[in-house]
Design a protein that fits this description.
The complex is a heterodimer of chains A (about 450) and B (about 325). Chain A is built from 13 helices and 17 strands. Chain A is of the alpha/beta class and about 450 residues long. Chain A has four domains: about 160 residues, NADH-ubiquinone oxidoreductase 51kDa subunit (Rossmann fold), CATH 3.40.50; about 70 residues, OB fold (Dihydrolipoamide Acetyltransferase, E2P) (Beta Barrel); about 80 residues, Roll (Ubiquitin-like (UB roll)); about 70 residues, no CATH class. The longest helix of chain B has 25 residues. The chains are: A alpha/beta (about 450), B mainly alpha (about 325).
Chain lengths: ~450, ~325
Amino acid sequence: MSRTFSVGGIHPDDSKFSMNQAVEEFPIPKRVFISMNQHLGAPAKPIVTKGDTVKVGQTIAEPGGFISAWVHSSVSGTVADVALYPDFLGKKVLTVVIDVTGDEWLPGIDRSPDIKNEITVSPAETITKIAAAGVVGLGGAAFPTHVKLSPPPGSKAEYLILNGTECEPYLTSDYRLMIEHGQEVLIGGELMRRALGDVRGIIGIEDNKPKAIRYMQQLVENYLGWTVVPLKRRYPQGGEKQLIDAVLKRRVPSFALPISTGAVVQNVGTAFAVYEAVQKNKPLISNILTVTSQDPTIQKNYRFRVGTPVQEFLIASGAMDHEGKLIPAFTKIVNGGPMMGKPVSEPAGPVMKSTSALLLLTDKQARRKEEQNCIRCGKCAQACPMGLEPYLLYRLAMASRVEEMDENRIFDCIECGCCLYSCPAYIPLLDQLRIAKNASLKNKRK
Amino acid sequence: MDQLLISPAPHLHSKDSTRRLMRDVIIALIPSVLVSISFAGLEALLVLSVSVATCVSVEFLITRFLMRRKTTLGDLSAVVTGVILALNLPASSPWWMVLIGAVIAIGVAKMTFGGLGHNLFNPALVGRVFLLISFPVQMTNWTVKNGFFSFGYKTADAVSGATPLGIIKEGLASGMTMEQISELHDFSYLEMLFGKIGGSLGEASALAILAGLVYLLARKVIRPHIPVSVILSAFIFSGVLWLTDPLHYADPVLQLLSGGLLFGAVFMATDYVTSPMSAAGMVIYGVGIGVITILIRVFGSYPEGVSFAILFMNAIVPLLNTYFKPKAYKKEVSRG
């Protein structure tokens, strides 16, 4: 029997249409827009100016604080501008714009496809190299990886869990990575396992990816301290708290960090980036994303350079014409998965280090229906993986009853979207809960 | 890019909608409706049509002219109330009584609270109980007819009589034992299963009700907690009574198959709006209905108590929702 998390959860259609599409190299665009704001924490500070020439892998921005990350150029060429440019949400952020010439890499980066198995660096060196390579969590939150690998004083890691669940529908980039580069993922995991002090390594994969489970099981046989845990398919299994519950049967208390359960969770994509950073000296300048939709001709996996404009992928896949108009079938572009991804409002905005998918949705799929009366069916409460009562929090939020919202643990909401997904009356539960959470936090700061 | 949709996540929705859930309840009611028509013929059809038509019209008129907002008929909940109310009435109910019941159900029990989702009590049950108290004679006039086209004819086959529960109540009150009552009246479990017993339209066949239950469970419209706890608790409680004194208490199988217990457990106690949200709350609510039903049947003055039991438990649902929360990710709340 496969394991899974213990409370709530939903089973949306898998829709993993691009599962069997091998990852293709996406052409380097003429111009990239590298945001200084593509990780959680303080924005990075540019260290290049207009007119500078840069090579692939060269640092262009330094960390802006303790929780921040280095940013590297993903292309070679000339810095065209360092200024505010819109990201895919249309929000203006400090961006380094680079006009591309050729593809000249910084010396010292190992670009050969040979797998470097032997580990020669010490744990401390590993973390330094990860930080220097600008590696951030590629599961979505983009939290700087080196910070997560240095548990705060007083806490001790016992387990490293590699997240290969890819529980969001449509997404297939982690699956392709495990199938095509499982060995590198495992070496990256092994580097982090040692850096955390020889903890136990676990790879969690949902059972809708049997090939990946079998392949990773075969690979871990050559490594001590690793196991693969198949998980029963259920959303949001890839949520940190749900994954720790599913794998270890331990629960993260409210307001506590996952490390309080002794577990550090890292995405398989992050493990691959760690492998490249430590074994190949290659900074995080590229990643894999899924460009997908219901249309069989638009279902692909690409390795892309960070900073490529979103519209390049849409034009290349035939979803957008050269004037920047979406083909009529689609009305929504999502950056990420359909449950937690962000809506793209500016297709000229770039993809980030942690972009995992560009999902095209039809009007029928994506348009919200008119809100009706709550019929108190309790489906939202059954679906909530944190055991909250979204209908109640919604009512309290509408009445601005902040203290009662706290009593009902609004702060535990992980914004997975299960409540809104399940509501038969189309009540915008999560929308209000997000607003209410912010209000609750503000109330606390007072 | 003027036409890009930019609403926040989640970007997909399950296929569930209020309309779809209500449609499933209507589908689950079809076996009971068919059985009632096949036994009571056009009379059943008349009760059903008057009830549904009145429920729908009253809701339409109130939303259109009193609340002045978009009609809510599309969610089909008025149709569900109409069918359930009809199945709670005897076949011989006069049309004007059905009409009054439907006006009370929708007009008073549902719309005065603000419509679907806001009512405290199950509308169909309020309608039924209103009629039961106002027109006790018509509400307890049970006639088992010989089926279709018997409408308007007083055929010799028509058996008029009380329900099994009524017979038992009267018999026990007059000092008879269960044995003596059974000798006079043959309560066939088989007939109760397939439906040829006196009672409200929907009570006729246990099998038809169970078919509806299976459908509702398979479609995940309801969870098993409420019907199972109502049925089990009524069975166990009446079983204990029967074991202590089989001469003066009806056996648990008879209790289950007679009256409105099954119909109430499956179609009325499970009404989303008036039942608890959490699994624990559902079980307590269900056990409450089962036990109170048997209490009224055995010790009360009415032969049947399902309606009162459900209405009583409806009243404490807000309390159950406050004290019985869904299973939490974490047992104890840490104070941050």
